[in-house]
From TrEMBL:
Protein name, entry field: carbonic anhydrase
Keyword Translocase annotated: no
Family as reported in the entry's similarity comment: Belongs to the beta-class carbonic anhydrase family.
Annotated function: Catalyzes the reversible hydration of carbon dioxide to form bicarbonate.
SMART domains: Pro_CA
InterPro entries xref list: Carbonic_anhydrase, Carbonic_anhydrase_CS, Carbonic_anhydrase_sf
Source species of the chain: Kitasatospora herbaricolor
Stretches that traverse the bilayer: none
This protein's UniProt keywords: Lyase, Zinc
Alphabetized Pfam families for the sequence: Pro_CA
Taxonomy, superkingdom: Bacteria
EC number: 4.2.1.1
Length: 213
């Protein structure tokens, strides 16, 4: 699929998955990473996806999805926690840059989720601004506990779902774009060991959760 064909949420999603499959197979093509692409994108950008992910150093978006310059509008925070600046950045990617896809990318062994689970279990409090991260992850951890979950993967999935829900609850612009069929929001869980991205939740796409990129 060429970039010229990435005009719908589904096409954008399929392009992202194809890149992850190449990465997993060790067959990355490194598209759009040459001097010609640099020159092409210098005047303006039109990324086909907004990627909101965890800041973890092992989640370099353009690498794990085998993309290049101008392809992804990336926003990252520890534990992919939301704040006004994050919401504004995502809305900018959708409303101004015209991206048809928003991806929430979580991963296993997430330090923010682990720290929050420990804080709740032990009654400890993180120091500095890390406390703010823990506080924002807490609702997800409490929901997972209430559902009887014990496995790390279930906590991660719950936090990804919670983040997707928050995005659509707090951003009227994003919710209206999804309702109109112009944009889809998906939540993916990345596995550090094998590099695969698994679908956790989707809004605006008719896809089975649990599918592998």
């Amino acid at each position: 699929m060429t970039d010229a064909l990435i005009v719908t949420p589904r096409n954008a999603f399929e392009t992202l998955l194809a890149g992850n499959q190449r990465f997993v197979a060790g067959a990355s093509e490194h598209p759009n990473q040459d001097a010609a692409r640099r020159t092409e994108t210098a005047p303006a950008q039109s990324p086909f996806a907004v990627l909101f992910g965890c800041s973890d150093s092992r989640l370099a978006a353009e690498i794990i999805f085998d993309r290049g310059l101008g392809d992804l509008f990336v926003v990252r925070t520890a534990g992919h926690v939301l704040g006004p600046e994050v919401l504004g950045s995502i809305e900018y990617g959708v409303s101004v840059l015209g991206s048809p896809l928003v991806v929430v990318l979580g991963h296993d062994a997430c330090g923010a989720v682990a720290a929050t689970r420990a804080a709740i279990a032990d009654g400890t409090t993180a120091g500095g601004y890390v406390r703010d991260v823990v506080e924002k992850v807490t609702p997800s951890v409490l929901a997972a506990r209430a559902a009887g979950h014990t496995e790390d993967a279930d906590y991660i999935a719950e936090h990804i779902r919670h983040t997707v829900d928050l995005l659509l609850d707090r951003s009227r612009a994003l919710a209206e774009a999804v309702q109109a069929g112009r944009v889809a929001v998906v939540g993916l869980s990345y596995r550090l060991a094998d590099g695969t991205a698994h679908l956790v939740t989707a809004r605006g796409l008719d896809l089975p959760t649990g599918s592998v990129a």
